[in-house]
Design goal:
The complex is a heterodimer of chains A (461) and B (313).
Chain A (H helix, E strand, L loop, with lengths): L9 H13 L2 H23 L14 E8 L5 E8 L10 E8 L2 E9 L5 E7 L3 E8 L2 E8 L7 E8 L9 E8 L8 E4 L2 E5 L5 E5 L3 E9 L2 E9 L12 H24 L4 H6 L2 H5 L5 H35 L5 H28 L3 H30 L4 H12 L3 H12 L15 H25 L3
Chain B lengths: L1 E10 L5 E11 L4 E5 L6 H8 L7 E6 L2 E2 L4 H6 L1 E4 L11 H10 L5 H14 L15 H13 L5 E5 L7 H16 L3 E5 L3 H7 L2 E6 L2 E7 H9 L4 E8 L3 H8 L4 E6 L3 E6 L6 H10 L3 E7 L4 H8 L6
Parallel strand pairs in B: 3-8, 3-9, 6-7, 7-8
Antiparallel strand pairs in B: 1-2, 1-4, 4-5, 9-10, 11-13, 11-14, 12-13
Classes of the chains: A alpha+beta (461), B alpha/beta (313).
């Protein structure tokens, strides 16, 4: 079936453009640079800070100590090994040592069972040290046996378990006096937050400020205080995966727009320089079909590696920080990157049609990128600062509106809007979304019309 | 059949340079039409418009009954262009170029591959079809250019300087090929600087100068038209021509001028007078040894120079 006249030749040109670009050296170089910046950035920023009570990030394993007793009153050291989120770690070696006035005495090295537990009778020893080593990471704890056994014991950790930039999560582990898992009800400030699971674990949120936590097992309740510090400011730098993704998206805005420029700056002019333009135009294809084919081919050639790199970046953020970014935000990041690519490729198609030589085409490409990514933001900043020196609100609105004049700025505004509400302050959540959304559509439509018009007028000349 | 009427092309706005001005000619079906003109006369502009690459400012073109302005795609389906500069995508092989171009005509890939291979083999590129075009010589690129314009078996071929830059063997190859293609029923529009080539191939020619068509006719009629009313020149090759002989020839009625040449003499007579018998008799009587005597034929080159006022080709 023949395509309508407007689109005639589009598919053929698009396939050719894509294949030629995929095999080009510049695509490989730009894909590597993008991967370096986006995946490397994701790794670097995800690893920074965070973890709250765990400097350097959350630990790979947590050791939960309990003092238990057997029927004869002998001391039983109970150690549960899990990841910070309550996943039992089977087969981890726990090194038990007796701590006494004469120093440490090795007792046993025992592997955790299928549920992550080690239960070891230590006779009358009062203080036991338990250590677990995972690669280069080592964690240890002590178990003290009080003279008066308690019906159940608990251990807690507090930190940024959901990687949202604040240490407002707590995890608890509860066993009874025999060292067995028993259901425990947990309440914070009198409100139930759930029961421990089959391994004795529960993770729950704490409100800011001071709280009272109640642990109830078989009608008996123990109470302890908890505090969440930190205040009303935004998230800490590079803490949650969403925050890392915002940083990555900002870096990606510059790299992806450059990628678009590098691959499409001579999409039209090279046909002319190579001398293949006349042969192409004499084929049964419409000018609009040829131009749209050029666009689709160059767009796909950039979009494929960029999407792969972006997905890898999101994967690295999830792997390093232990939590995936918000799904809708990650999807918006992927989609907005494509929008940015489309904008810059269309812009380059117009410029490439006007450029008579390869040199001019390169110059136009570099200038266009510098204009929208560097010069325009600087110029609007200077103008804004001069006009609204004593009017922060006025400046804020000016910068939002002036930002619509650069596709990269529009992308940044849309990324800010797509970011989860909890990150208010790092994005522009005060912006009316309709403005940047309309601007994004307007940029695409205008640049498409401009590219079609210039190619129609200037294509062969 | 190609019919061009009132073709005008103005570059750079309504006050820009007029590359073509009211160009009108027609090329009968299944003929070879020679298109001549000095550099910058408008040949390439005409060809690019015919090949649908450029759009005319004014005028109509009908190719095989389709109006180029109204139905360019139908025209393109049946048109093969062989441009002067034969340049291809440097990183594609010869066969890949053909497959790419074939895809625009809706030719199935397997058929395009078969057809492409056949053409490349026919034009002596069978061993080179898997090589990238950047490794091709000029002559090989010319052959590839010919293959690409025949891929879809078009009725009309537009050829811009097909033999340009080829060695004598290559020129003859192309000349024979163009004759063969014409024999296959193709209408061929041939632009060439090589007047000898045009003379050999074309029955009709069009001559363009400064964007205007100055003549469209058969070579014989053009020659007759230009020589009508012009004096006849006899070129005489003879040894031992004496001054007496020259005086005797000059005395023949109708002779207006006699001039010595390294080979003998040139005799100019009034238009329409046949003085060859009297000239040869007079020279022999004066003791000269006559080798050859022939009336000068106006060559295409002379016609061209006369019509374009000596301009540039």
């Amino acid at each position: 079936m023949r395509a309508p006249e407007f689109f005639r030749g589009m598919r053929q040109v698009a396939v050719q453009e894509l294949l030629v670009n995929l095999k080009s050296l510049r695509l490989i170089i730009m894909a590597l640079v993008s991967a370096l910046v986006i995946v490397g950035g994701a790794y670097g920023f995800s690893g920074l800070g965070s973890g709250g009570g765990f400097p350097g990030g959350l630990p790979p394993v947590v050791v939960w100590p309990h003092a238990a007793y057997n029927a004869t009153g002998s001391h039983v050291a109970v150690v549960w090994v899990s990841d910070p989120f309550g996943g039992p770690q089977a087969g981890r070696t726990v090194d038990l040592e007796a701590l006494g006035p004469n120093g440490t005495v090795p007792l046993a090295k025992i592997a955790t069972d299928g549920n992550g537990f080690v239960r070891h009778d230590v006779g009358g020893t009062d203080v036991i040290a338990a250590t677990v080593t995972v690669g280069s990471f080592q964690t240890g704890t002590t178990i003290s046996f009080p003279p008066q056994p308690q019906n159940f014991t608990y251990d807690i950790i507090q930190g940024d378990l959901d990687r949202d930039g604040s240490d407002d999560e707590m995890a608890i582990h509860v066993v009874n006096v025999s060292g067995d898992v028993v259901p425990a009800q947990i309440a914070v400030n009198g409100t139930s937050v759930g029961s421990t699971d089959a391994h004795g674990y529960l993770q729950f949120d704490l409100p800011r400020g001071d709280s009272i936590v109640n642990v109830t097992v078989a009608g008996e309740t123990q109470t302890f205080p908890a505090t969440v510090r930190g205040g009303s400011g935004g998230p800490t730098f590079a803490s949650g995966p969403d925050t890392v993704l915002i940083i990555i998206a900002a870096l990606s805005g510059f790299i992806v727009s450059l990628f678009g420029v590098v691959l499409s700056f001579d999409a039209v002019s090279k046909e002319r320089v190579q001398g293949t333009m006349d042969l192409l135009l004499s084929r049964p294809a419409s000018r609009s079909g040829i131009l749209l084919g050029k666009f689709l081919g160059a767009f796909a050639a950039v979009a494929l590696p960029v999407t792969l790199v972006n997905l890898a970046g999101i994967g690295v953020i999830a792997a390093v920080s232990g939590k995936s970014p918000t799904g809708s935000f990650a999807a918006a990041f992927l989609g907005l990157s494509l929008l940015l690519i489309a904008t810059y490729v269309l812009l380059q198609l117009s410029l490439s049609t006007i450029a008579k030589t390869s040199g001019t085409a390169i110059l136009f490409g570099v200038l266009a990128w510098l204009l929208f990514n560097l010069l325009y933001p600087i110029i609007t900043f200077v103008i804004g600062a001069a006009l609204f020196a004593n009017d922060p609100a006025g400046y804020f609105h000016f910068s939002l509106v002036s930002g619509l004049g650069s596709p990269t700025q529009v992308y940044f505004l849309l990324i800010g809007l797509a970011a989860p509400q909890s990150l208010a302050g790092s994005g522009g959540t005060a912006v009316d979304p309709i403005l940047p959304e309309a601007a994004a559509v307007a940029w695409i439509v205008l640049l498409l019309l401009l590219a079609l018009w210039t190619f129609h007028k200037r294509g062969p000349e | 059949m190609i019919e061009v009427e009132g073709l005008t092309k103005v570059y750079g706005g309504s006050h820009g340079a007029r590359a073509l001005d009211g160009v009108t000619f027609s090329v009968p079906e299944k003929s070879i039409f020679g298109f001549l003109g000095p550099n910058g006369a408008g040949k390439t502009t005409t060809i690019r418009i015919l090949a649908t690459v450029l759009q005319p400012t004014e005028g109509t073109i009908r190719i095989d009954g389709h109006d180029l302005g109204e139905d360019p795609l139908a025209v393109k389906e049946n048109l093969g262009l062989m441009p002067d500069e034969v340049l291809f995508y440097p990183t594609l092989t010869g066969l890949q170029q053909l497959l790419y171009y074939a895809s625009f005509y809706g030719i199935r890939r397997a058929d395009a591959r078969k057809r492409g291979k056949e053409l490349l083999e026919q034009f002596g590129l069978g061993d080179e079809m898997a090589k990238k075009v950047k490794a091709y010589s000029h002559g090989m690129k010319k052959r590839l250019a010919l293959a690409q314009c025949l891929l879809h078996d078009p009725h009309v071929l537009i050829m811009d300087e097909p033999a340009n830059g080829l060695d004598p063997g290559g020129m003859r190859y192309f000349r024979d090929l163009i004759r063969w293609l014409n024999g296959q029923g193709k209408t061929i529009f041939l632009s060439s600087h090589m007047l000898y080539e045009v003379e050999q191939l074309c029955e009709r020619v069009g001559i363009i100068d400064h964007g205007h068509i100055v003549a469209v006719d058969t070579i014989a009629d053009l020659s007759a038209r230009l020589t009508a009313g012009a004096p006849t020149v006899l070129r005489v090759s003879a040894a031992g021509v004496t001054d007496d002989g020259i005086r005797a020839v000059a005395a023949i009625p109708g002779v207006t001028n006699v001039e010595r040449t390294p080979l003998g003499v040139d005799v100019t007579a009034k238009a329409g007078s046949d003085v060859s018998g009297e000239v040869s008799r007079a020279l022999v009587m004066a003791g000269a040894a006559l080798r050859e005597l022939k009336a000068e034929q106006r060559s295409l080159e002379d016609l061209f120079l006369a019509l374009t006022k000596g301009g540039g080709a």
